[in-house]
Structures are given as structure tokens and as C-alpha cells.
């Protein structure tokens, strides 16, 4: 069974056709990078995967659950699919440790000692064990994002979605966050979908690169084909040449 299957998926915001005929299969353990111009539908696509955005037509199966089926319990999806946002979205009035322990406690009813031990292990993994009792406002943006990643990992998801996780960060913070993401991509069997402009990340750990424009998938390549060969789509080639010029 594949982790994610889109079959002819359509998504509308009112009259606006935001996702057009999306067909995409992602296997368990793959790291897929989504790129494309602003407004092309990348965020919308990944937000449909955990049910944050409903679809209007087609079929979307995530971890075996049909998202369009009203009988599917949304919690079944949310337990297995984590999301890391551009703006971290940590709870301001909770400490770092409390942020990480909250969802496993409420949703999974995880035993308190086990929850704390695992949270501390994750904090260690993202290099922030010393910040367990700090509040989010006492941390830099890059540190907050690493906490947000640890918080997602605390649910032991099968799939992790990243929506431009480094684009709100000062340049000097970006590598710390990317390194944490690279470690996860290499060392875990989690499925990762990453919307990002960080082509270094895509080249290093992406298994596949998907190029979107105007709500459509125009290119779906291995990273070798995308970066070292030539994308067959003209707009993808133009986009790639602009990115390389900018770097
Ligand atoms: N809640 C909404 N209501 C109406 N239109 C929306 C909504 N969210 C997104 N859109 C529109 O859908 C299109 C795709 O947006 P989306 O955020 O998915 O693109 P994106 O490729 O992620 O862009 P960016 O790189 O700028 O984040 C855009 O034209 C956007 O204006």
C-alpha cells in the first residue's frame, strides 16, 4: 500500500480552481520536494493530505484512509500525519517540553513518564535539550522551528509535511533547521513531503522533485533527472534556471 494516493483530485476555493487533476502516488519512506512559483498550489496540495483543506472531487487515500469518505475519522489521519508550518505555531503559554508533550498526552493518552522521556530524547535530537523549560518567545526563530519539528515527531507520525519551514527564518538559522530535516530524511523511515525553495536540501535528500504551476503538477522527476538532466516541461526548466541564478 502506498502512503499517499491522489486520483484526479480537484480543489476549489469558491470559483477558483486551486488543484487541477492531481494524480500523485508517494510510497512509504520517500522524501518528496515540491517546488514552483508562488500561488501554484503547493501549500494547498500538502494541506489536503492531513485534511486541513477538503477536496471537492477525485480520491485521496492517505495511509489507507479515504479522506473524502465522511466515515473516515479525521483523528486517524492527524495521528499519522504531522505538519510543520512556516510560522512554527507553538503554544506561547506553554514551555518547550509542554509543547512537545501535549498532543501525545491528549490524543494518544501516552503515559507521563514515557511522554517526558521521549520528548527529552527528541529535544536532544534537535540539539535543544537545554531549552526544555524555556518559553517559545525566549527562543530564536530557528530554535522554535526545531521545537516544532520535535513536537511533530512526538506523535511518531508515519508521514511528515513541511510547508516552507525555513522561509520565515533569518539566513543564519536556516542550516540548523535543514540539518534536522536531513537527519530525519536519512535516519527514519518516515514519508516526507517538503514545500521549499531550498534546492540544496532537495538535491541532497529528496528522492523526487515535483514542480507545480497553476494548480497542476507539470513535472515529477527523480532529483537526478530534475537537477542533472533536463526537466521536460518548459516552465520547470525556466523556474530551475532562475533559482540557480539567484543562488
Ligand atoms: N483560503 C483560501 N481562499 C481562497 N484562495 C486561496 C486560499 N488559500 C490559497 N488560495 C489561493 O490558491 C492559490 C494557491 O495557493 P497556495 O498557497 O497553495 O500556493 P503556493 O504554491 O503554496 O504559494 P506560496 O509559495 O506563495 O506559498 C493561490 O492563488 C492562492 O491565492
TrEMBL record:
Keywords of this entry: ATP-binding, Nucleotide-binding, Transport
Organism (species): Paucilactobacillus suebicus DSM 5007 = KCTC 3549
Regions that span the bilayer: none
A family per Pfam: ABC_tran
Lineage: Bacteria, Bacillati, Bacillota, Bacilli, Lactobacillales
Coiled-coil region: none
Protein name, per record: Phosphate ABC transporter ATP-binding protein
Gene3D superfamilies registered for this protein in UniProt: P-loop containing nucleotide triphosphate hydrolases
Family in the record: Belongs to the ABC transporter superfamily.
CDD domains xref list: ABC_HisP_GlnQ
InterPro entries from the UniProt entry: AAA+_ATPase (IPR003593), ABC_ATPase_HisP-typ (IPR030679), ABC_transporter-like_ATP-bd (IPR003439), ABC_transporter-like_CS (IPR017871), MetN_ABC_transporter-like (IPR050086), P-loop_NTPase (IPR027417)
Location of the ABC transporter domain: 4-239
GO molecular function: ABC-type amino acid transporter activity; ATP binding; ATP hydrolysis activity
Amino acid at each position: 500500500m502506498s502512503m499517499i494516493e491522489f486520483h484526479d483530485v480537484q480543489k476549489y476555493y469558491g470559483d477558483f480552481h486551486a488543484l487541477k487533476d492531481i494524480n500523485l502516488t508517494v510510497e512509504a519512506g520517500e522524501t518528496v520536494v515540491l517546488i514552483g512559483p508562488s500561488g501554484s498550489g503547493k501549500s494547498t496540495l500538502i494541506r489536503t493530505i492531513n485534511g486541513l483543506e477538503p477536496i471537492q472531487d477525485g480520491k485521496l487515500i492517505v495511509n489507507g484512509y479515504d479522506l473524502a469518505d465522511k466515515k473516515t475519522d479525521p483523528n486517524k489521519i492527524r495521528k499519522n500525519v504531522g505538519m510543520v508550518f512556516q510560522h512554527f505555531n507553538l503554544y506561547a503559554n506553554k514551555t518547550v517540553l509542554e509543547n512537545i508533550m501535549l498532543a501525545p498526552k491528549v490524543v494518544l493518552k501516552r503515559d507521563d513518564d514515557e511522554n517526558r522521556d521521549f520528548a527529552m530524547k527528541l529535544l536532544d535530537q534537535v540539539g535543544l535539550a537545554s531549552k526544555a523549560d524555556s518559553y517559545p518567545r525566549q527562543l530564536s526563530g530557528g530554535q522554535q522551528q526545531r521545537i516544532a519539528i520535535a513536537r511533530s515527531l512526538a506523535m511518531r507520525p508515519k508521514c511528515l509535511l513541511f510547508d516552507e519551514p525555513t522561509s520565515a527564518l533569518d539566513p543564519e538559522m536556516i542550516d540548523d533547521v535543514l540539518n534536522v530535516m536531513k537527519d530525519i530524511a536519512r535516519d527514519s523511515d518516515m514519508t516526507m513531503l517538503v514545500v521549499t525553495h531550498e534546492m540544496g536540501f532537495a538535491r541532497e535528500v529528496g528522492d523526487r522533485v515535483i514542480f507545480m504551476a497553476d494548480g497542476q503538477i507539470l513535472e515529477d522527476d527523480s532529483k537526478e533527472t530534475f537537477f542533472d538532466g533536463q526537466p521536460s516541461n518548459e516552465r520547470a526548466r525556466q523556474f530551475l534556471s532562475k533559482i540557480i541564478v539567484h543562488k
